Amino acid sequence: RVFCSSICALGAIQDLVVIKPITLPKKLTTALSMIPYVYLGSAILFAATGTGFIICRYDPFIGIFRLNGNAPYLYLGAAFLITGMFIARPYCRFFCPYGVLLGIMSRFAWKHLTITPSKCIDCRLCEVSCPFDYIDKPNVGLARESRKTGVRRLGFLLAAMPVLIILGGWIGHRMSVPMSRYNHWVYLAEQVVAEKVNPDLKETLETKTFRQMGTSEEELMAKAHRVRQQMNMGGWILGGFIGLVFSLKLIGISVSRTRTDYEVHKPTCFSCGRCCSYCPSDEMHLPNFVPGSLAYNEAMALRDPNAAAVEEPAPAKKEKEPAQV
Prior knowledge:
The protein is mainly α. The protein has helices spanning 2-6, 9-15, 26-32, 35-48, 54-57, 62-66, 71-84, 90-94, 97-106, 147-174, 176-180, 184-197, 205-213, 217-254, 274-277, 294-303, and strands spanning 135-136, 263-264. The chain has a two-stranded antiparallel ribbon.
């Protein structure tokens, strides 16, 4: 995910406002991480049916960069930036649909960011370096549940996966009618029908323009019906996809893998390198990581908030060497 760390302008503007990031509960972050999948699936469905490009339309920061956005979207972008002062990169973590695709590809990356270039010395300094809480801690020696209990739970989740997929598809099918109303042809067809049923309704600008175009109502109804069918099928696919993702997330939480070192969480890590600067084993940052330095004191304070800053010891006086004859 080099794009997220080094290229993305949306991530850069959010990084600028991070002041005091807080750590959110794991259950909350897991639940919020479902939003990008819903956003991505809905965007694909809307684009495939010609309804619109909702990713560009509802981007919270594009109006700030263009300096010509509508007021509601500017307020939305400002709200994200204010939230980003305490929850680092909220849009990237809980809304960005492109991050979903990058996260999937990041699982299969040939080379990925590592916290330490050599063996981990378990100093725990990187533990609090990530404002996104995307560092997995070692779990060797921790108390674990029995293997039998884990296998039973995994079997139950695998058996529930088809049920969740079908349930999600049914919900998507039920949502197809409301979603189709965002399509221009469906909205126009419903407006024409409403005016025919209730003559007291005044013609809207859309219906007036439609009648002036000379297109028959039969053609309009056929287009609207075709969009409704596409939305119905797409609703089943979208809902099934969300049910599948939800099932896989439950399985990912259930399965525990053995970790001996501190590792970045590959699907979500932005590869920003903050954790690398906290690692004493990294020779690149070692000159700035000596007792008494700002980086060292900040790391120790984060590790133990009650600990006082460590002062740099005074350099030892060198004894004068005897003059050589």
